[in-house]
């Protein structure tokens, strides 16, 4: 997969007193990084290297250009002193540069040239805002030497080069006074480039893109208008031709944002961790949307393959080193957390997480403490969750049509919707492979009892439940309190069938014995006990299980035991459902109601809330032409079932990304301008990034217009990507999402941002 990356190097301070301190490079690097990393403009993954010694700068340059592919687009920017030795060789000064030891303490232009020559990419832009003399005058030039000789230094590299000066000029800093933090203004060259990219004016031919020719023309025109002492030069070397540097910014783009301090240095955890987050988020961003773009991966055997599965992609990502590895780990943890919470929306969560972290960077660069920033994030996202709940109160009754809106038709939506809607709220829905080629479903009545108390039984890691088929059922009227009681229980029944033991309670010794039996024989033994309510109520549940399964209630160590049977048993930590093929569901319901009326609810207040005695279990059997197709279909149907169940419980919204964008606008609109802090405003704007990425992923020429249109009229309109119809009325197909997805996503992203801030 081709990447867009930028390495931004700026050096303002120098150990050698003969190299005067520069005011512009720190701010130059900060402002250029901001505009290049903007997904609506540059879209680059930016790595800033600020005020670092020469060995660090050389290592970063070499790492930046190594192991590249032809379609990778790279941008290298240097803002520093430029020095020439007695043989007119060019060197870029670093923080530890000694003018007497240029070869060992600076970055030779020949070194950079060597990395360019060896680089596999053929799409490289080099921006040089420097010249090669150490003289410095406040408000004046970076150097006083002449003759840049860049054509000789960078010939035949296959790159485009734009420099700040011609052969006889100096590179000038901003003319403004030094501030209390030691800053000046942007240099003349970088100010023109940043302004052109951020405002969109650099797109001189109006094609929606800023090419090298566009950028050079705009910078040259602006610099000549501002300062006749300096004009840039451009070379396109190696026959590379036109290179698209950035998108044209939205029409309402503004000038450079003034930040109080320079960008944090390379060694700052905030920057290092952000680098890891950006590198991990970039491929996941491609998969966002109902028609995801695929990501190219390489398997353990070296064979390339593609995937849209975010969990598979993050598992295959290189971990990296240093603090960057922590950033990759945060993305992996977020994907796992979001999948655990909703089994969907992982790419959206990662895009929102990256946007939130980037929104915090100016405050971190300004010296804000991470702890109050974490509180601000929590406040903003908590407000968003409350507003989301107001927009979509839990529905009283969801029809099959409502539930079907979130199920793609290609995954047998009719069967899925009928199974989920027929089973109802809180029911079990199982999706299993079948030997046929089609799909069938059925909904069965069940007896629902108390908790599943067998933690040693293997459970599905996603749903957290255990399913047993064709099980024997033993109902015991007294507590199983010893290992001998457990051995007595497992001695009955067909040893090849699973065993379900229902009893009022189990002691730890009995549990351990059941676990040992399962471990030794492989025969699943499930222990089910009613909740710890009143003793009469536990006895009633045992009687209900006996009546439903056909088992006789026995006592421990009894010599004659009559087992019952269950075609299917499904258990979680909250409840256990038993399904039989024989018997009348109506008769069971009447029997349960009779027992309820005989109980005295006032004797135990909890009884009035314990209503799980009858329920339903839905089964969906999925076939396929071969094992691979069957496996793929089962995964699709399971995801559709989870979406349908979430919709049944929480309702539906017209578009997950659209809802988040609308939340951001509403939060911003409801806040008085004088009450809102800059960090809050940035976080609220970040909520629109998933919609921006979705529109960009599906070929929208101007994602900003999509975001603006949806924010203005949502929920009446939303964005439709399946058929590439853009902004459409919300009654259209393929736009609906369960309301629970963005709600739990805000929780997952808050946890991830808090974890990030705890590392800084």
Description:
The protein is an alpha/beta fold and 760 residues long. 41% of the residues lie in helices and 17% in strands. Strands 14, 15, 16, 17, 18, 19, 20, 21 and 22 form a 9-stranded mixed sheet that branches. β7 (123-129), α5 (150-153) and β8 form a beta-alpha-beta unit. The protein is elongated, with a radius of gyration of 33 Å. The model is unreliable at 132-152, 167-171, 173-184, 252-267 and 605-611 (pLDDT under 50).
| Category by helix and strand content | alpha/beta
Alpha-carbon distance between the two ends: 31 Å
Number of helices: 24
The coarse silhouette is elongated
Q: Low-confidence parts, pLDDT < 50 over ≥5 residues?
A: 132-152, 167-171, 173-184, 252-267, 605-611
The strand count comes to 26
Mean pLDDT: 79
For the CA atoms, what is the radius of gyration? 33 Å
Q: What fraction, in percent, of the residue positions are helical?
A: 40-55%
Strand content: 15-25%
Largest sheet: 9 strands, mixed
């Amino acid at each position: 997969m081709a990447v867009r990356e930028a390495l931004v190097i700026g050096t303002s301070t120098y150990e050698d007193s003969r190299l005067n301190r520069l005011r512009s490079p720190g701010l130059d690097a900060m402002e250029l990084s901001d505009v290049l990393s903007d997904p609506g403009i540059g879209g680059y993954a930016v790595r800033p290297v600020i005020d670092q010694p020469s060995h660090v700068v050389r290592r970063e340059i070499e790492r930046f250009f190594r192991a590249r592919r032809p379609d990778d687009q790279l941008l290298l920017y240097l803002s520093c002193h430029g020095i020439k030795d007695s043989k007119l060789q060019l060197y870029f000064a670093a923080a530890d540069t000694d003018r007497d030891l240029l070869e060992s303490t600076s970055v030779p232009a020949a070194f950079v040239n060597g990395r360019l020559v060896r680089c596999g990419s053929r799409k490289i832009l080099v921006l040089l805002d420097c010249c090669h003399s150490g003289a410095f005058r406040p408000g004046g030039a970076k150097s006083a030497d002449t003759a840049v000789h860049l054509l000789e230094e960078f010939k035949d590299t296959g790159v485009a080069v734009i420099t700040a000066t011609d052969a006889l000029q100096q590179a000038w800093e901003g003319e403004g006074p030094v501030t209390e933090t030691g800053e000046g203004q942007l240099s003349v060259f970088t100010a023109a480039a940043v302004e052109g990219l951020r405002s969109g004016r650099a797109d001189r031919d109006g094609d929606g893109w800023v090419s090298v020719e566009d950028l050079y023309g705009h910078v040259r025109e602006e610099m000549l208008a501002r300062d006749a002492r300096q004009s840039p030069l451009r070379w396109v070397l190696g026959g590379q031709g036109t290179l698209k540097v950035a998108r044209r910014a939205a029409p309402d783009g503004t000038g450079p944002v003034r930040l109080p301090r320079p960008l944090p240095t390379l060694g700052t955890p905030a920057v290092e961790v952000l680098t890891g987050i950006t590198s991990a988020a970039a491929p996941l961003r491609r998969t966002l949307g109902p028609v995801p773009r695929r990501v190219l991966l390489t398997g353990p055997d070296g064979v390339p393959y593609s995937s849209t599965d975010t969990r598979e992609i993050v598992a295959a990502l290189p971990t990296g080193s240093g603090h960057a590895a922590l950033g990759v780990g945060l993305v992996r943890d977020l994907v796992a957390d979001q999948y655990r919470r909703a089994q969907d929306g992982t790419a959206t969560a990662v895009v929102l997480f990256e946007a939130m972290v980037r929104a915090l960077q100016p405050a971190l660069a300004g010296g804000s403490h991470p702890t109050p920033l974490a509180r601000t994030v929590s406040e903003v996202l908590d407000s968003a969750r409350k507003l989301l709940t107001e927009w979509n109160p839990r529905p009283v009754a969801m029809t099959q049509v409502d539930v079907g809106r979130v199920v793609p038709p290609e995954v047998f939506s009719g069967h899925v919707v009928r199974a989920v809607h027929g089973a109802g709220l809180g029911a079990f829905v199982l999706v299993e492979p079948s030997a046929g080629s089609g799909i069938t479903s059925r909904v069965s009545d069940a007896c629902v009892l108390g908790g599943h108390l067998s933690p040693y039984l293997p459970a599905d890691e996603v749903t957290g439940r255990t399913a047993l088929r064709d099980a024997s059922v033993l109902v015991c009227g007294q507590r199983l309190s010893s290992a001998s009681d457990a051995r007595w229980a497992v001695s009955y029944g067909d040893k090849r069938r699973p065993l379900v033991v229902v009893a009022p309670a189990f002691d730890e010794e009995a549990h351990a014995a059941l676990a040992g039996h399962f471990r030794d024989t492989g025969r699943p033994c499930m222990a089910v006990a009613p909740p710890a309510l009143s003793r009469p109520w536990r006895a009633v549940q045992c009687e209900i299980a006996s009546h439903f399964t056909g088992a006789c209630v026995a006592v421990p160590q009894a010599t004659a035991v009559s087992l019952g049977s269950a075609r299917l048993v499904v258990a979680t930590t909250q409840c256990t459902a038993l399904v039989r093929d024989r018997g009348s569901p109506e008769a069971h319901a009447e029997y349960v109601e009779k027992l309820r009326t005989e109980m005295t609810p006032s004797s135990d207040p909890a009884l009035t809330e314990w209503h799980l005695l009858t329920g339903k279990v839905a089964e969906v059997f999925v076939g396929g032409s071969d094992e691979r197709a069957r496996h793929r279909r089962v995964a699709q149907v399971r995801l559709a079932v989870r979406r349908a169940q979430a919709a049944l419980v929480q309702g539906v919204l017209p578009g997950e990304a659209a809802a988040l964008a609308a939340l951001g606008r509403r939060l911003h609109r409801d806040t008085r301008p004088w009450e809102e802090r800059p960090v809050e405003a940035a976080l609220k704007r970040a909520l629109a990034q998933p919609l921006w990425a979705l529109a960009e992923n599906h070929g929208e020429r101007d994602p900003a217009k999509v975001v603006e249109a949806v924010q203005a009229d949502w929920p009446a309109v939303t964005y439709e990507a399946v058929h590439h119809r853009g902004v459409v009325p919300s009654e259209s197909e393929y736009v609906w999402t369960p309301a629970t997805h963005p709600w739990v996503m805000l929780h997952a992203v808050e946890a991830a941002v808090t974890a990030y801030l705890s590392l800084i």
